[in-house]
Design goal:
The complex is a heterodimer of chains A (412) and B (372). Chain A has 16 helices and 7 strands. Chain A has 412 residues and is of the alpha+beta class. In chain A, α1 runs antiparallel to α16, α2 packs antiparallel against α3 and α5 crosses α13. Chain A is elongated and about 100 Å long. In chain B, the strands form 2 sheets. Chain B has a 3-stranded antiparallel beta sheet with strand order 2-1-3. Chain B has a two-stranded antiparallel ribbon with strand order 4-5. In chain B, α6 runs antiparallel to α7, α6 runs parallel beside α10 and α6 runs parallel beside α14. The longest helix of chain B is centred in the last third of the chain and has 38 residues. The relative contact order of chain B is 0.11.
Amino acid sequence: MLQYIIRRLLLAIPTFLGATFVVFFIVQFAPGGPYDQQMNALRKGQGAEGGGSALGTESMAIPPSQLEALQRYYQVNEPIWKRYLMWLGLFPRPVNDYLAEVGEERNVGGGYKVVARKDAATGLYKVYALDDPSTPLEDWFVDPSQKPNSVWLYQREVAGIFTFDFGDSFRYRKPVTELISERLPVSMQFGLMSFVITYVVCFYLGTQKALRHGTKFDVVSSSIIFIAFSVPGWALGGVLLVILGGGSGIDLFPTGGFQSSDYDNLTAVEQILDRAWYFVLPTVAYTLGGFASITLLMKNSLMETLGQDFIRTAYAKGLREDRVIWLHAMRNSIIPLVASIGGVIGIFLAGGYLVETAFNIDGIGRLSFEAIGTRDTNVAFAFAVISITINLVGSIISDFMLALVDPRIRFS
Amino acid sequence: MAAPSSSSQTINQRRWRKFKGMRRGYYSMIILLTAYIISFFLPLLVNNKALLISYEGEWYSPAGRDFLGSLPLVSAIAPSSFDPAEQYGETGNKGEANYRELQAKWEEQGSENYIVMPLYPFSPNEDVGVAGNESFVEPFADDSNGSMRLFGTDDNGRDVLARMAYGFQVSMSFAILISILEYLIGIPIGAMMGYFGGKFDLLMQRFMEIWTALPFLFLIIIIVSFVNPTFALLVLLLVLFSWMGIAAQMRAQFYRERLRDYVAAAISIGVPTRSIILKHILPNTLVPIITFFPFALVGGISALVSLDYLGFGLPPPTPSWGQMINVGLSNITRYWLVVVPFSAMFITLTLVVFIGEGIREAFDPKVFSRLR
């Protein structure tokens, strides 16, 4: 068992690398990213300084040192695999990048001053602390610059998604991890709620449908859940918002958002009610699509079990029907339901940005969707990484649960 | 398989009869097919161009030319449907003729020229720029020209009914195309993986695992945000990210079937691999994917609506349900802007699901016996 889990985890690593590389490649390929935006900003800035002439603003050249700094910051001249490894955090990336004239002292932050000098023996540049000009500093590195008699001084740092460093958001000017952890609770609450509701409803409905197979209840409920499955949840949510959200119709629910503006002034009970009031419509939108597959899974599984010989034996022993169904059949029927848990976790996140956009909820889905529009690449990356991780972890959990609840499954 | 008691029927005939016997699925299919076929004639039914014009003894049919232009393949050689107003006596007006106005004018003058308009004389993309069009006309109300707008108009004064109807055509064609292409890619890949196994199978499995782990809608949005989306590109992207389901299904089927005796027999008498795969195994593996087809359609329609809603779908001003819902959700006091496209989508998807249920029941009946 332990061996199986370890192997399963190891197999997930190449998948993770492959999937993240595809995402990285596509996002890097997209024009108009932070690098292009900064270049444009610089061009415009130059135009304004240059006397405000409308002519020639586009052709106004960016000072070479600034251009170089920008190129170095975004590593546009590095090959894609190297950037990918840096982004993963497997390859050190340059930080604290300073342009310095050779032999001149350079302030590198915190009042700390260094100087770069050519090593007479090897012909290589080395960095020395001002107060100790004899031994070169080991943690500083030197790159050539296009500017005559100048070099770039930098330090190296291993920081990437493996060290949980997703970089800074270009738009919000703060670390992506901070941004996401601010909004994750909102998305998580909806996700968890939908998860619980889905399983409770599906378990009950699936059982009832199996026990009443072929009846009107079964046929009608099948149609309803199939239709619910096919209609996108966010779209139904949108209609409910218009009809029940006070737009045009009954003003029963808020028109989106997450909580009332005076939420902090409410008492504890009122706070819970307030949340619940805001939760109803989005939760409907979230859960709707998930009902069909799990309900049918439950139903078919229970029906199959009910047709087996040991059930006949149980009845033949004279056991009561309740006992046969709930104790003998259920324990065997619930296996596929448990195994589906891993897959369901991902669904709530994947469709999240649609529901969150429709309902104006400030969750990570909406954050990342907006990040695409503003080319906030680091945020988009983070969301993609989270999605991929959840997908993979979900399938591992499924396999693990399956092995746990089904004694017949032995992995070798 | 045991023959039915009466006459000799092939298994497909029996399935078809069973499907026909399931009223709901059968009628859903008739309704949906009819609607889809009619939707190809939309330029003749819902259009602001005249179906027929008699002007000074000459006959014209701009809507007819529009219809030719809307057909695939023919469109390349179809004549333009643009007629300047001066062609019909509006001297000096080089803009497109407004046939509704012309009709009213000629009727008023009692002239011998006359115009026959399509059944519903509004186009999906004509906005407030055309005289008489207003934003936010309510359903069943008249616009300022006194023409009845059955489902009202949107924020740009475009007719909601016309957009909904053309949106149906776009959605269905899109979904059908995607599903067919998905099958065309997924079936051979899955079949080869299952039949040949070995290294190819292993490699493809790893690849599919990676491909399935990707947040595909998110990636499509990213790609569409920097490449100009066209109908063909969107189809390509969606197919690219959604053939794995079919392939996995086919792989499992082929994997199982190739160990059967009839395959061994075929191999031993020297049947070429190609015909073993195509003639012997393939027909035995089609049931699950045939029953899946309607649900592939559902997936295609939903994906397009979602992308259009987010603004990363078909380029404007293509009439699409997703774009209509988007407009509706930013104008939530105008209920018809959301309710109309949603209902159209809801009804379409419901019909598809009913068809799917019927097909599944006919092809793959699950018989459960309950012992007690």
